[in-house]
Amino acid sequence: MKQLTHNETVNNKRKFPITIVCDAIRTPENIGMCFRIAESFGIEKIYLHENSANLQNRKIQKTSRNTIDQIEHTRYSDFNDLILNLKKNGVLVVGLEITDNSTAIQDFDFKVYSKIALVVGSERNGISNIDLLDKSIAIPMFGKNSSMNVIHSLAIALYEITNQLS
Question: In the record, what terms sit under GO molecular function (predicted)?
Fold first, then answer.
């Protein structure tokens, strides 16, 4: 067995019809990692709130590892307007959130939808308006803690979604 370098690794490059909506994600490290994870999973676009840190922030630049220029991204000012516009354009809006109506992520059939917006909320308050979501999904957990870092959750969700769509 030999550990491969980045230059020796060949990925199956592909884009998926998935966008990420970052609702009040403001921590520079989380924003940078969002880009890195999104690029790794072939995501089309990221929406960031206008109050999120500037993408030239040193911590964002370091954690994104040069993926900011590889992912289309847009800033928005009003969460509700953005979500309603996505829905108007035929996008299924799915929140990664623990609700009384969440479906376990592995039980949700992503294959029946042509465009998906995955909404992730702030670690403190979650998604600001869950009533706008078409669906909510949750990652089953088995410890005492009921949540994990937003970017860890995002990575798990994108793995499951892209695995189903592959």
Answer: methyltransferase activity
Nearest to 162 by CA among 44, 74, 72: 44
Q: Which two tokens stand for residue 145?
A: 């803690």
For residues 136 and 23, give the distance between their C-alpha atoms in angstroms, rounded to a whole number.
14
In 3D space, the residue among 119, 114, 123 whose CA is nearest the CA of residue 146 turns out to be: 123
Bridge partners (DSSP) of residue 104 are: 138
* Per-position b or e across 145-155, b if 16+ CB within 10 A of its CB: eeeeebbebbb
The answer to whether 109 and 136 have CB atoms below 8 angstroms apart is: no
Rounded Cα distance between 75 and 77, Å, is 7
Per-residue pLDDT of the chain (166 residues; tens, 9 = 90+): 999 998 888 888 899 999 999 998 989 999 999 999 999 999 999 999 999 999 999 999 999 999 999 999 999 999 999 999 999 999 999 999 999 999 999 999 999 999 999 999 988 889 999 999 999 999 999 999 888 999 999 999 999 999 999 9
Q: DSSP strand E in the chain: where? A: 16-23, 43-49, 72-76, 92-96, 103-104, 116-121, 135-138
